[in-house]
Amino acid sequence: MVMSSSANPGGPPATNVYLRRRLLVLAGLVAVIVAIVLIVVRPGASAEVQPSSVPTTTTPAADAEAEGTAECSGTQVAVTPITDATTYAPDAKPMLSLSVTNTGTTACSINAGTRAMVFTITSGTEIYWVSTDCQQDATDNIILLEPGKPITSTPFAWDRTRSGPDTCGTDREVVPAAGVSYHLTASLAGIESADTRQFILS
What we know:
Layout: H1 15-41, E1 77-83, E2 87-88, E3 95-102, E4 108-111, E5 117-123, E6 126-130, E7 142-145, E8 151-152, E9 156-157, E10 180-188, E11 191-192, E12 197-201
Parallel strand pairs: 2-12
Antiparallel strand pairs: 1-3, 3-8, 3-9, 4-7, 5-6, 5-10, 10-11, 10-12
C-alpha cells in the first residue's frame, strides 16, 4: 500500500472558505442572542394595569384615629338625606340613607352608628314614620371625619307603613299613596339635615 507523504493532499482550504464558515457561525450566534433578547424583553408588551378600586359607600368601621379628636359640631358638619329615587311605583320600597360631610378645615370625630341616626318621614305637617320607633340592635361607631370627604350610610328599605312606639311587632297601617308627596329628614349625632328629600309614592 502506498502511503501519502502529506496529511492533507488537497492543500489548505482557501481563505474565502474560512471566512464563509466564520460568518455562518457568527450569524448563528447573533440569531441565538436576538432570540433570547426577544424572549426576555418582549418589545411592545406593557405592564398589566390593575383596575382602580371603587370607593366604598358604606359607613366605615370605627376609626382608632378618632380617639382624642374633637367631636364634630353642628357648624362644621352637613347631613343630607338620600333616597334612591324621587317617584316610586306601588310595589317599590324607598331605600333610605344619609351622607355626612365635614365642611370645616380640620378633622373631627362623630358617632356614625345606627344609634346616632334618625330618619323621619313626613307629609305636610304630619309625621308618618320615625326610624327609632321600633329600632333594634342599635350600635355606636365613632369615626374620624376628614374635611371634604363625605361618608354615606348603608341604604335600607322603608316598608311604606306608619310607625309609632306602640306599633312594634304588629301589622302597621300602610301610608297613603297614589301620588302623595313625602319628605325625608335625617339627623346624625343630633345634627339635623338642613333640607329634606322629597319623593312621591304612586
